[in-house]
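Bug #77: duplicate submission created two jobs. Keeping one. Sequence:
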Amino acid sequence: MIFRILFFVLLGINVLFMLGCAHRIYAGYQIKRNRVNTYAIQNVNTGKGIRVHNAGIDDERKIILYTHQNWECMTWQFIQLEGDVYLLKNLYTKKTFQPSSSPEAGVSLWQQPLGGNRLQYWEFLKQPDETYFIRLKDTDLYITISSDKNHSDIILMPLQNSPDQQWKLIEQRPIF
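Kept job's structure:
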């Protein structure tokens, strides 16, 4: 009998807690659904997208290629700086990416805090087929896949006019 009473007391507390939190949960959902300028960046060659490795929030986490998902960790908010130049903010980590060292061919990208660093400025060069080449501003280096495998590094390379360097923007508003 005592277990039955305890069960109903705990059930009642849980219901009251959920009713008290429901408006916050719904408000959070509405905020996420109403975001603007949020896209997955999907490689034309592989159909895979740009993601922070293991959705880690720590700085210097590498930026990788991963099977496309409608997840916050694969969605980037485009913050326009000028013309076709953007700062990209990951919805999950609230950070951006930049070269892991001085920009040169073959350098990988890693996660860093948003900071107005010019190494975080990306120029989106639209092509007639609605794809983009993504160039690090003020350089001749473009975002390029290093392999078609999941977890492979995203690197910078000179323009090769290759699908390995072409990207589609997939508008998405993930909840998770």
